[in-house]
Amino acid sequence: MKNRDEILAGAGVNTRLAHAGNDPADYYGFVNPPVVHASTVLFPNAATMENRGQKYTYGTRGTPTTDALCAAIDELEGSAGTIFVPSGLAAVTVPFLAYLSAGDHALVVDSVYHPTRHFCDTMLKRLGVTVDYYDPMIGAGIEALIKPNTKLVHTEAPGSNTFEMQDIPAIAAVAHKHGAVVTMDNTWATPLYFRPLDFGVDVSIHAATKYPAGHSDVLFGTVSANAAHWEQLHDTQITLGTCAAPDDAYQVLRGLRTMGVRLERHQQSALELARWLEGVEGVSRVLHPALSSFPGHELWKRDFKGASGIFSIVLDGGAPDRHKAKAHAFLDALGIFGLGYSWGGFECLAVHVSLSDRRVAKGPTEGPVLRLQIGLEDVKDIQADIERGLAAARAV
């Protein structure tokens, strides 16, 4: 592509996704970059080795493959730098380790991804860091929870499983006033539909296992920081040695090329089904931020450019002792939906959500919560499958 940078700067999102990250001219015209499997890198002489006076020095510190993906992610995030780690969970835990020390205090949203909470309640506690959980709807009121030793505020919007929205700019402004780093798990929206760094977040976290990879076959995490926090993040990754595999980096870069069109389909199908489900017998509530009935809809509409393909429904549960049986009946009746914990791939998935770890944001209690990942299948087929599940649940 001639005048590549100039053209891409003003291009649409799918054009940028198709061309971001690497220039074919750098690889003899091949469209995709090479997959470089590397540990040892050779130096031409002792002086260069001593001074590390060349671009690549060891496999853990980057290769042409990871550099191509890194450039693409930085362009999408608007970040000063990005690290790659072996999973989405590592994408959360590495920045926590980067910015927190013994004696520090962190504030973490109560609707957080459960493995993040487990890390906070076990490893961070053992390392001498105290953590308090806050209501996702707290907004600027988070100031009342800030302590002199609060060093990090972690956000996630929408919230895990129940999709509560957060006023990210308000929370970030308060945190920065008190000198705290703001991190955000942005896996649901991806940088296509929300760019955290544009809204005051310092570090954007993404389980690239989900929509960037997109095919349920890669575990991968990205962490992108602004200029003020990049060096500390990068140094932490080098110290920990948490690098991602070259084949996985290549797969994620390949997935990025089609992420825009896939997300459009996920969004369209999920919204159509969510709107339909609002009027279906046996469904008490639909938890989707893009629905006007959802409590956080105005925040979503103000800050986000789109929605992805995952949301939850709350069944009419009847007596509490019947909730589990209804959830299991729904899940066991499904034929197209797989029963699996991940999401962001091409296929529909469903899971019975547990909210037993919540401390502040308790979530729905009138019935079981079922999280639905809407894949790329035809909507009429997905709808028929959900109807099978609902019929089975009503029969319990």
TrEMBL record:
Q: What class of enzyme is it?
A: lyase
Query: What CDD domains does the record tag this protein with?
Result: CGS_like
Q: Which InterPro entries match?
A: Cys/Met-Metab_PyrdxlP-dep_enz (IPR000277), Cys_b_lyase_bac (IPR006233), PyrdxlP-dep_Trfase (IPR015424), PyrdxlP-dep_Trfase_major (IPR015421), PyrdxlP-dep_Trfase_small (IPR015422)
Residues recorded with modification N6-(pyridoxal phosphate)lysine: 210
Identify the SUPFAM superfamilies for this entry. PLP-dependent transferases (SSF53383)
Cofactors needed by this protein, per the record, are:
pyridoxal 5'-phosphate
Key words of the record: Lyase, Pyridoxal phosphate
* One of the GO biological process terms: L-cysteine catabolic process to pyruvate
Report the Gene3D superfamilies cross-referenced here.
Answer: Aspartate Aminotransferase, domain 1, Type I PLP-dependent aspartate aminotransferase-like (Major domain)
Name the Enzyme Commission number(s) assigned to this protein. Answer: 4.4.1.8
Say which family it is in: Belongs to the trans-sulfuration enzymes family.
Protein name, please? Cystathionine beta-lyase
- Species for this entry: Shinella zoogloeoides (Crabtreella saccharophila)
